[in-house]
Structure formats: C-alpha cells, structure tokens
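Thanks for the sequence, V.! I ran Sensor histidine kinase right away. Repeating your input here for the record:
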Amino acid sequence: MASDVPVVPDPAERPKGEPAARGLRHERIEAENRELRAMADHLFATQEEERRMVARGLHNGAGQSITAIRMAAHAALHETDPDRRREELEDILAQADAALHQVRTICARMRPPPLDALGLEAALRWHAEAACVAAGCALELRIDPLPRRPGPSVEQTGFRIVQEALANALRHARADRVSLALRVEDDRCVLEVVDNGRGFDPLVTVGPGLVAMRERARSAGGRMDIASAPGRGTRVLASLPCR
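Predicted structure:
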C-alpha cells in the first residue's frame, strides 16, 4: 500500500534554488503581461487616433467641399445666364477635384498606395522621403532591390515598423539625421533605421509603441532589436522572412 502513496518531499530537502527559480518565472510572466497590456493600450489608442483623423479629414475637408458643391449645383440649376452657369459648373468641378484629393490623402495615410502597387521598397522610399521633408530632417537611403516580392503580411509588417521607428525618431527623439536601409541577409529582409536623436535606455523605457513593433515582427515570423542610449541616438533592426 505504501508504494501507492505519492511521496511529497520535505520542504527542507528541496533544492535551495527552487524558490528563486519560481520567483524568476513569476517576474517573467508579470513582465510579459505588462507588455501585452501596454501593447493592447497602444493598439487601442492608435485605432482611436486613426478614427479621429478620418473623421476630421472627412468633416473639415471632403465634407465642406461636398457642401460647397451642393450649393453651387443648386445655384447652377436656377441660373439663366449661360456664361454665369458655365462659371458655376467650373467651380463645381474644382470643388469635386479638391474633395477627391482630400479623400485620396486620407486613404494614403491609412494604407500607402505604393505598398500595394509597387511593393515594399517603393513604399519605404516614398514614406521616408515625405516624412523627413516634412520634418526638415536629413535622410540617407540604402534600399537594395529584393530578389522577390514578400507576402502582403511581411510587407505590411515591415512598412509599419519603419513607419513607427521614423515617427519616434522625428517626433520624440527630435533627430535631424536619419538613415533607412533595406537589405537581404540569409533569405531574410533586414530593415534598419538609425537616428541621431536623444536616445533612451531600452531597459528602462519600454513604451507601448516599441512593444507593438516587436510584436508585429514576431507575428510575421521575425524579430526586432533596439539599441539606444541617452544622447547617443537609436538603432532599430528588424529581420523578417522574405516570403
């Protein structure tokens, strides 16, 4: 009978390192939970900001243009002078062109057209040049042609990581010089963003944006590393499968 009874080891005889190991596992789980909560908060805030941006763009831009078109069309319906009617119709065309441009601008912010039409290389070049020109920042580009076009998820992930890294460099780190590189190493798409901004301590500052970038890379089968120090700029390196 005694052989069927499970033996519970005496706590005093347990390895001394066992409580410490449990403590380390608990700390690791807590850290991962904090990262997940931070990432969820960041994604929610990003979605809300995108919704606000779309709402502002439609209301202040396209919405006002459509209102002006409606008023001009109503006036043209009751205009008897042919020359005056022609002027009002030309004004309607101009307002329609403006509304179309505003809608296209909103769509480009949500998902850049070059990413679908021309691929990752063109989309990265297009976005980096536009962002750095707007911020008055010097840009160095080293974008190698890829041997084949990656899948949509890899392209989307790579673009969003670079987009976030550039936003951090220009908005938060206040860099005035940025370099962006895309190359292939061992059948992996390697993306590198380096800035000369204020830098930070990655062991102390783990913002939700950085967590989201790392999780994006992981979900696409890749990884992302960050090297930075206060006053020494930041280097973001992402490696994604070229599939």
